[in-house]
Amino acid sequence: MPYRINNGYIRPIDERPKTSKQGPQKAVEKGSFQKALKQEIGKRQGLGTSRIKVSGHASQRLIERNISLNDNDMKTLESAMDKAEAKGARESLLLYKDIAFIASIKSRTLITAVDPKESKEKIFTNIDSAVFLD
Predict the structure, then answer these.
(1) What pLDDT is recorded for position 12?
(2) pLDDT value at 35 more than 80
(3) What are the counts of helices (DSSP H) followed by strands (DSSP E) for the chain?
(4) Are residues 95 and 134 in contact, defined by beta-carbon separation less than 8 angstroms?
(5) Phi first, then psi: what are they for 12, rounded to 5°?
(6) If exposure means fewest CB atoms within 10 Å of the residue's CB, which of 11, 40, 66, 68 is most exposed?
(7) Residue 94 above 80 pLDDT?
(8) Confidence of residue 22 (pLDDT cuts 50, 70, 90)
(9) What string of H, E and C letters represents the secondary structure of the chain?
(10) How far apart are CA 49 and CA 69, in angstroms?
């Protein structure tokens, strides 16, 4: 499932076909309005999606570099944050595939994304840990 960045959160892209120009379909079963409303509120609050937030800077970098993350990528990054948190990390370098992410473990936020090949200085500061991912 592909993801997109919306308001600093990584959310799944809705791949359902668009409704017709006639408007949304009418609910048939009783109580379906409340159910649909709760689902929409849950989506807008980020429930049921990744627990990782993305800073504006990181989202800009991901877009510039045309980097998309799928379900497996998100699970891997979440797992890395969990492991780093268990070891007491606060700010961590997450090296995943060919991307280096700087992450705030406490707030579970990706601060930036760097392509190590494009990094001029190849120096990462203000981190207290590094996690190498497969």
Answers:
(1) 74
(2) no
(3) 3, 7
(4) no
(5) -65, 145
(6) 66
(7) yes
(8) low
(9) CCEEEECCEEEECCCCCCCCCCCCCCCCCCCHHHHHHHHHHHHHCCCCCCCCEECHHHHHHHHHCCCCCCHHHHHHHHHHHHHHHHCCCCEEEEEECCEEEEEECCCCEEEEEECCCCCCCCCCCCCCEEEECC
(10) 13
Helices assigned H by DSSP within the chain: 32-44, 56-64, 71-86
φ/ψ bin of 70: left (φ > 0), alpha (ψ from -120 to 50), beta (otherwise): beta
**Distance, CA of 24 to CA of 2 (rounded, Å):** 24
**pTM: predicted TM-score of the whole model, two decimal places:** 0.62
Q: Is the pLDDT of residue 84 over 90?
A: yes
Q: 84 near 131, Cβ under 8 Å?
A: yes
The amino acid that residue 112 corresponds to is: T
Per-residue pLDDT tens for 53-65? 888 888 888 888 8
Average pLDDT over residues 7-11: 74
Cα end-to-end span (Å), the chain: 20
Rounded Cα distance, 52 and 56, in Å: 13
Token pair, residue 110, equals: 């990706």
pLDDT for the residue 83: 94
| 3-state secondary structure at position 30 | coil
